[in-house]
Amino acid sequence: MKKLFPIAVLLTAVLLTAVLLSSCSTQKIEMSQGTWRGIVLLDTNDKSSAMPFLFRYGKDKNNKDEIIIMNADEKIQVTEISYQNDSVFIKLPVFKDEIRASVISKDTIKGIYYHVGSRSKYSMPFVAYSKAAERFEYDGTDPAADLTGRWEMTGDPGDSTEYKMIAEFQQKGKNITGTILTTSGDYRYLDGVVAGEKLVLSTADGTHTLLVKADIINGKLENGFIIGGPKWKDKWIAVKNEKAKLPPSDSVTKLKKDAGVIDFTFTDLNGKRVSLSDEKYKGKPVIVQLMGSWCPNCMDETRLFTELYDTYSPKGLKIIGLCFESADFEESKKRIERFVSQLNAKYDFLYAGEVGKNTKETLPFIEKLNGYPTTLYLDKNHNVVKIHTGFSGPGTGKYYEELKKEVISTIDKLVL
Q: How many other CB atoms are found less than 10 A from the CB of residue 348?
């Protein structure tokens, strides 16, 4: 069968230089309004790593530039769009990722997708075309199977690093959506197509740039890859298993046996040292959220906590986000402030140091931190009554609704 990406598009993306933002032209070219297909080449050494996504470009009610990124049921509004001569700069919301491109014509832009992670920064070639009808190029081949349902996934099969995941897919004709759940959360809204014996999905949400693909062989998913960037390329296989489960979220991260009453001291965004033992938190139930402003599952959890905070803060509940960022406080502060502002979060956020560092000094009461977010629910005496690692966001559907009910039930008990 034909490739899902036309080879000309792949070669165009591969040949993009790292910087295409200078030009002798000083005249702004207006981009065409309508639906565009953006393509990010996740790995310049791999032509098959071209990851497409759809976005609409137009004007908001105030006649200002607006982009809406579309991943399945998710719609992400982008309003930080600026022009300099014939170049356009698109800052994606909440996180620090950015598109920097030259407007070649009203229907084509080319440049780089600049990614800023927890401890890494890199750029990837980017191109986008207007008048897009589909996320993936499709040659009309009928799907070989309906992949709707739950799949037990094995990452890095056969290696010492082998790990388990669960995929949930919903397929209608050739179109397929879903997500992948892991012990630390989910891959949010995946959107794609099944063509013949090929499965491909993608998502672009401001921090994830994900391409997921596999072959359908004898009812199984084989030769799978998850590609998230130039250094993230995991193999996977999967079998359909409606009873597949991940380890319980409350068993992933554990306290030390002699942990006792929890306390810690970190720096707030004004540079002031704040302790859990401060008067503000004494005698109050506290949710301690171990997180990062770079973490998409932390974003989903923060949205839920922000929603619940108005209801439960009058009943005494406190929430503290412990943000693990870069080693640079000032840089981290800007990232946290952007995260908090764009999510309209109303609770407290503290800088907890560099992500990935040994937690024996910063969180000596934890045996081992195994993922972000990890959330500690403390009673009024600051004893841990529950630990939850990971967060299944809205993209997981029923799993999110079940988790939301569980969170509310836990908080109800804390504030009694």
A: 18
